[in-house]
Amino acid sequence: MMLPRFAVMSGPDGIYINIYCDGETTIPCNSKNKVTITQTTDYPVSDKIGITVNPEKPGTFTIALRIPSWSKNTSLAINSKAVTDATPGSYEKITRTWNKGDRIELKLDLRARLVAMAGHQAIIRGPIVLARDARFKDGFIYESAVVRDQDGYVDLKPSDAKPPEVWMSFTAPLVLGTDLEGEFKNPKQVSFCDFASAGNTWSEDSRYLVWIPKTLNVMKTDYKSY
Question: Which helix (H) or strand (E) holds 9?
Fold first, then answer.
């Protein structure tokens, strides 16, 4: 597999951490030193990633952390001391003298984002695409709806009704059907799961949908003559 080789890589100016996952990597930093990088995390279920740095001997080198472009609010600390805000869509390069047991604490922005395209909407939480799944039994999944958002972000809540085959599940506020007067009332909390879990039983009860058709509100559409 190629993925482990890309997860943590040695470059000419230091060590690059590209993929965040629970595990350990020992990598040469230069011809005279090796560094063990241990990640402790359940990301992307949660937003916290702990990284322990263990060089064979203390040394000055760079550790570059990949900051995804969608992580607009990223927090970073070294040995519990906050570091300047990281720039989305870049590597945050930290050059210092590293000692055994030094600890990096990274927190990525997992707020759910609403993507709209061609009259449809989809919800993405961090790197994970979400989908409606018929197994939740909370309505007709192909029904049109309006996903309620605030400045492009959707307020997700943890879902208690998670089928055993599902990895992650949440509820999102949707105004279902064509009764758009419901926008001014409390929207319904509708269940979503991660795309990898959607439809994974291959049976009729686990049909799924990522792109939710958006209900057209003709009262708010500009009139165009024929």
Answer: strand 8-11
